[in-house]
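Model it.
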Amino acid sequence: MKTTTKSYAPTFFTQISSAQMLDGYALTSGETITFEVTGGAAFVYGSTTDNTTNDPSVQFARRIE
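Modeled.
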């Protein structure tokens, strides 16, 4: 388990790898990332590209209660 805290200014945009987001921690199979937004709002998504077919995929974060 890895915990990290990030703060961003309003209207900030970044598109980085999960390892960059997690300060170098590399995800392995079956792991998930959880975000806690403590102020304002966030649009969180992940994207991948298949290494063989180059088919893109996008995953949108969903709110959990």
